[in-house]
Please model this.
Amino acid sequence: MKKRLLGTLLATTMVVSLAACGDNRKSADTTGEVQTEEATEVEETAETEETEEAAAEDASTEDVADSEASEAEETAETEENATELAEGEYTVGISQFAEHGSLDNCREGFIEGLAENGIVEGDNLTIDFQNAQADTATASQISDAFVGGSVDLICAIATPSAMSAYNSAKDTEIPVIYTAVSDPVGAELAAEDGTPVGNITGTSDALAVTEQLEMIRTILPEATKIGIIYTTSEANSVSTIEQYKEYAADYGFEIVDTGINTLADLDMAASDMASKVDCINNLTDNTVVSGLQTVINAANNAGIPVFGSEVEQVKAGCLAAMGLDYYQLGIQTGEMAASVLKGEVSASELAYQVIDEPSLYVNTAAAEKISLELDADYAATAAETFDTITVE
Model:
């Protein structure tokens, strides 16, 4: 009996042991499978990361390559579009008669015109800029100094500076290129046919007199008297007034003019003029333009408009103008000067040039100052309309 029980126990123990071994074997197998799967996943993850890194590196390389190619194209395009510098070194003296917007624009445009033709300040161009502050004696001193300093060319901005430069340089080989000279013939800088009187030429800002009169008639249909203040020593102003008087009657106007000698005379002249006329018409007279706000204030007090002759005057508070773009006039002058400096042509061979067409400029803020209602359809034809007054 004991033997049978012992045998049974041994058999049971063996079965349990075998079962346990089987379970352990299964567990080990399962663990191995899990570990294998995990290892496989790790390998796959690593491979994926390597693939992604490689793709990222390739994409980055492609981006860098594209960026470098784009930069190369831009550089090539810039180099292709860049103006080639002219051979040689140049020194230009710029004599500007007065400091105001239109003449400043002429100077800036002149420098741009040179640069567009390969003569660039700081590279192959040295500029000596001097301003006469509306004094003719100072203008003469400036041009004399330029000649004494042996500049390659003198740029004279405005009639008094042009006349001074011509007198200083006429016995030398230094060419003079002028701009903003209203009447080169009247200033004896050109012959009647426009050809130079010496080694001097340039561009004229001759005013569009008939177009200006027509504009004033359109804006002020009931007006009869136009006032003009001018400086007696400025030949350009004297000749322009004669043109206004010649054509005024054709538009139903009478011209009332008064001359001043210096800027100190302007306040009294403006107040007196504003009490006699329906409007004041401003020329490109350098002295009067320097004191333009004095004229505008007197006109505003009298409730009458001031008409300008170019865009900067309209910005500063004139009601309107059939005027010029002085920056473009300067560029045109710079192009002429570049041709002379590079030896392509002599100044004595070039007739003076003018800008072809004037443009209408309007300032609605100036109209509001005197409670003047502008015709909307007419104002809409302006090249530029300003709704603020800019006083520099």
